[in-house]
Amino acid sequence: MVNLVQTVLSDRHVLNMLLFLLENGKVKESQLTAVVKNYYTAVDVAAKLVDNGLADSWSEKDGHTVKVYDLTELGYHVAEDLKRANDRILEAQGADTALS
What does the pLDDT look like over 53-79, one tens digit per residue? Predict the structure, then answer.
């Protein structure tokens, strides 16, 4: 029997949010809707990343106060591994498509 391990990576939108932060670096909270369309859902996903040590958040002044997110060192390494795995899948799918 397989033991299923559930982490934050199992949660909806987490993979896409990690890859978005990896690609974009430090982002404002309002920019999170580029990857998760619903603002409140995007903020909830980002909060899960912070709670699990994958991202940091802080406030900055930019004319007004904005919340900013960026990957932690752990988050960066996890996102890199996920990107590598995702790229392998996409390459394999491309090879399968080319063979068809």
Answer: 999 999 999 788 999 999 999 999 999
Q: How far apart are CA 8 and CA 31, in angstroms?
A: 21
Contacts of 13 (CB under 8 A, 6+ apart): 35, 36, 41, 42, 45
Residues of the chain falling short of pLDDT 70: 1, 95-100
Question: Closest Cα to residue 21, out of 56, 85, 70, 66?
Answer: 70
**Residue 70 buriedness (CB in 10 A; 0-12 / 13-18 / 19+):** middle
Which ranges in the chain belong to alpha helices (H)? 14-24, 39-51, 73-99
| Number of residues in the chain | 100
Token pair in block for residue 19: 């890859």
* Sequence-ordered list of residues with C-beta below 8 angstroms from that of 3, at least 6 positions apart, any chain: none
